[in-house]
Write a structure and sequence with these properties.
Nucleotidyltransferase, domain 5, seven-stranded mixed beta sheet, globular, EC 2.7.1.17, FGGY_N, kinase
Length: 491
């Protein structure tokens, strides 16, 4: 890796997603320098995960130590490739939202006394009070969700406070479940991290705060005051609100604040510069917004493991049907998110059952069938979410499938665009994290991010699909059918 000789500074962004740990590195000019990944099922198969998780009925978890070992493995890959660690000025990151990590009471002493001759996995086995971390796919907390909404005064009250009604995957409800069903584990917990702040903690060597953007997906943070809501802490802490507040720590309002230097362990083991800075890590959806350099009013559809609609706004619009989260680094800004967890995995399942090719990775047969299948009233349901909003930008793995994008154009009745950089890995949570790392130095040099121009990283978008308005009219008539199906599923 000799192409770094002319580069002075590098910025790292991580993304600890459901199925992999990804690293993206950029230079001062936001130019992509290097990428690397660790795929959990393939490279850490001894943990027994499938698609990155462990399924046990409605309970969906991931071994916390898998995430620890994935960092070991990723950094070792860089070391073998002679990556110039000494040129990294700032590290940031993102992670799957809602998941939680429970640190034991001896975690801090372990983190502060790491031996650089040994990998993290050999030294942090006793750092966690709960070995299986709840993830965003978990749906085992319906009872806790009902209790939370009842005690706070209803779903609308909760939405207006936190930006979301109670969801099974949200961290507050997961914590309440642990408090009630495993109070000993809760008492043995010194700190509760989100997956994002957990990863930042490893690099700092002490507990990293939860940033307010990722923290907005917990049913615990007041999105207006940007602080934990005491009434919600009391409920989700099963009466121990003050104790839960201590375990969560103070939320971090400044998304690009310098939290400290990288832990000496990484300096000695890998050769990071001792002055390399760590800033708050955030959620994968907030980080993706950064990578797209979108402006207020823009709409993104992310077709990933889950399918997500993101809209950047200058004020909150709480709704029972969506989530409102704080912006990852712009003060008093928000984004609205609508998420469905049956995304790419469901598409892959349908392909496998009904449109399997000899090459299991091919979508040719699937696309041919999709192209020939036109909307038929009462036989397909699709929720018509938005109308006449431009631009509609698509990202995520499935955004490379033009046949799926044609359907999106028909459903929404508008043109669909894809970044020309999507295929180059430019649009991703790890890229957004790397950009945020670069912005930390920009703010340090300019003293403000108000002068930062989105055009510095703005990419060209290609028109992929235009709507067939005849199909759009058919989809409009199917909303009622879809809503009826939703009611049946809920029952």
């Amino acid at each position: 890796m000799n192409d770094h000789l002319e580069i002075d500074n590098l910025y790292i962004g991580f993304d600890l997603s459901t199925q992999q740990l990804k690293l993206t590195v950029i230079d001062d000019n936001y130019k992509l320098f290097f990428e690397e990944t660790v795929h959990f099922d393939k490279e850490l198969s001894h943990y027994g995960t499938r698609n990155g998780v462990v399924l046990n009925g409605e309970t969906v978890t991931c071994p916390t130590l898998l995430w620890v070992e994935s960092l070991d493995k990723l950094l070792q890959k860089l070391k073998i490739n002679k990556f110039p660690f000494h040129k990294v000025r700032v590290i940031s990151g993102a992670a799957q939202q809602h998941g939680s990590i429970y640190w034991s009471h001896n975690a801090l002493s372990l983190l502060s006394s790491l031996d650089p001759s040994q990998p993290l996995i050999h030294q942090l086995k006793n750092a966690f009070s709960i070995q299986q971390s709840p993830t965003w796919q978990d749906s085992s907390t319906s009872e806790q969700c009902e209790e939370l909404e009842k005690l706070i005064g209803g779903a609308e009250v909760l939405v207006n406070l936190t930006g979301s009604k109670a969801y099974e995957r949200f961290t507050g409800n997961q914590i309440l479940k642990i408090c009630k069903k495993d109070p000993i584990a809760f008492s043995q917990t010194s700190r509760i991290s989100l997956v994002s702040s957990f990863l930042a903690t490893l690099f700092l060597g002490h507990y990293a705060p939860i940033d307010i953007s990722d923290g907005s997906g917990m049913n615990l943070l007041n999105i207006h005051t940007k602080q934990w809501e005491d009434k919600l802490l009391d409920i989700c802490g099963d009466g121990a609100g003050r104790e839960l507040k201590e375990k969560l720590g103070e939320p971090e309002i400044e998304g690009i604040k310098i939290l400290g230097n990288v832990n000496e362990y990484f300096v000695k083991r890998y050769g990071f510069n001792k002055d390399c800075k760590i800033i708050p890590f955030t959620g994968d959806n907030p980080a993706t917004i950064i990578s797209l350099s979108i402006k207020p009013g823009d709409v993104i559809i992310s077709l990933g493991t889950s399918d997500t609609v993101l809209i950047y706004t200058c004020k909150p619009f709480p709704s029972l049907d969506s989530h409102t989260l704080c912006h990852p680094f712009i003060p008093n800004s928000y984004f609205t998110m609508l998420c469905r967890k049956n995304g790419s995995l469901t598409r892959e399942y349908i392909r496998y059952i009904y449109a399997k090719d000899e090459d299991n990775e091919s979508w040719k047969t699937f696309n041919n069938i999709l192209n020939k299948t036109r909307p038929i009233k009462s036989k397909i349901g699709f929720y018509f979410l938005l109308q006449e909003i431009i631009p509609l930008i698509v990202v995520g793995g499935a955004s490379n499938n033009n046949e799926i994008l044609k359907i999106l154009a028909d459903v929404f009745g508008i043109k669909v665009w894809r970044s020309q950089s999507e295929r180059k890995g430019r649009i991703s949570a790890s890229m957004g994290s790397a950009i945020k790392a670069r912005l930390a130095i920009f703010k340090q040099e300019i003293k403000s991010i108000d002068n930062w121009n989105y055009n510095e990283i703005e990419e060209n978008y290609s028109l992929i699909a235009s709507p067939d308005l005849n199909n759009t009219k058919i989809y409009e008539t199917m909303v009622e059918n879809y809503q009826e199906m939703e009611k049946l599923v809920i029952k």
